[in-house]
Amino acid sequence: MNIVEGLIKGDRRALARAISLVENEDSSKNEILKGVYTHTGKAYIIGFTGSPGSGKSSLVDKLVSVIRREGLTVGIVAIDPTSPFTGGAILGDRIRMQEHTEDKDVFIRSMGTRGSLGGLSRATKDAVQLLDAFGKDIVIIETVGVGQSEVDVVKNADTTVVVLTPASGDSVQTIKAGIMEIANIFVVNKSDLPNADRTRTEINLMLDLDNKKKEWRPPIISTISLTSEGIEELWEELKKHRQFLEEGDRLAAIRRERVKREIVDYMEHIIKSRLWEKISGTTLFEKTIEKISQRDLDPISGAEKVLERVNLDNHEFPE
Ligand SMILES: Nc1nc2c(ncn2[C@@H]2O[C@H](COP(=O)(O)OP(=O)(O)O)[C@@H](O)[C@H]2O)c(=O)[nH]1
Ligand SMILES: [Mg+2]
């Protein structure tokens, strides 16, 4: 039985293997992704982002218990690119999510010890598709909200949860604007610590200042993941947001937008590799570089001239 068949039939080992292959950019990657695609689109995808140590893994662990009580199956992709060398975070995630290691309806995968951030965000998207095709009802992405790539990662989610804490240094002002904008739900975790109210107030003020009229105002939920306080409420709000998206055309529109981004990404990728195949090592390319270096030619004209000579494909627009 091949990997795709195994995965679709619910073989966990096939799933694990498939994720490794896409993560390592194996030559079989595209075949696997093509093979599973028609089986995707059923999972609901939730993204968790926030500073390292804000309690995302602990929170997800507790949330999974609540989700499992409803009989739903869960896949988790946890990424922590902030500790690429130690692997410490990943070990920590395993320990924190230990509660579910015996549960065959929960599949946990940690990523992030190798590769570029761009590669990581691609691998995450692929892993989410594999978990979806495997039949997980809910897929959770956990990532660190530090840079553009992490924002890109949660763009693959239907609902995004931003986790903040009252701990010093994690105040609302220090959070990147991009991160605040992608939040559908705010969680103030570690609400057992002092100043949790102040954090809530700051988020509220920020939401008040946002003058763009929005149909969905992100709710703010206080949690203590150590004691599971607020976790049920978080799940209720997640379901509400899902319901909100499923009303009208919202979810379909979000997913269409995602498909558009995906196909453009692939096309750019294909064009780039074809371009490199055609130009690298050629005299035309080398001579052009030389001319530009000598100031006999400018880079813009150089690029135009090279492209004129390179036929990437025929230029007619297909019907
Ligand atoms: N006081 C307190 N500590 C917490 C809470 N949730 C998590 N922690 C602790 O915060 C640390 C980081 O948690 P972790 O889930 O790994 O955070 P992540 O890096 O965001 O995934 C761990 O030591 C947790 O035990 C909470 O609600 N209150
Ligand atoms: Mg974590």
Account of the 3D structure:
This protein has 319 residues and is an alpha/beta fold. It folds into 2 domains: 41-247, 3-Layer(aba) Sandwich (Rossmann fold), CATH 3.40.50; 249-319. It is 51% helix and 12% strand. It contains 13 helices and 7 strands. The chain has helices at residues 3-8, 12-23, 29-36, 56-69, 88-96, 117-134, 148-154, 177-182, 196-209, 231-246, 250-279, 283-293, 299-309; strands at residues 44-50, 74-79, 106-111, 138-144, 159-164, 185-188, 220-222. Strands 3-2-4-1-5-6-7 form a 7-stranded parallel beta sheet, sandwiched between helices. The protein is globular. Residues 83-90 have low confidence and may be disordered. Bound molecules: guanosine-5'-diphosphate (GDP) and magnesium ion. Magnesium ion (MG) is lined by residues 56-57, 78, 80, 89, 93, 142.
Could you outline the blueprint of secondary structure elements for this entry?
Layout: H1 3-8, H2 12-23, H3 29-36, E1 44-50, H4 56-69, E2 74-79, H5 88-96, E3 106-111, H6 117-134, E4 138-144, H7 148-154, E5 159-164, H8 177-182, E6 185-188, H9 196-209, E7 220-222, H10 231-246, H11 250-279, H12 283-293, H13 299-309
Parallel strand pairs: 1-4, 1-5, 2-3, 2-4, 5-6, 6-7
Helix pairs in contact: 2-6, 4-10, 6-7
The structure holds guanosine-5'-diphosphate (GDP) and magnesium ion.
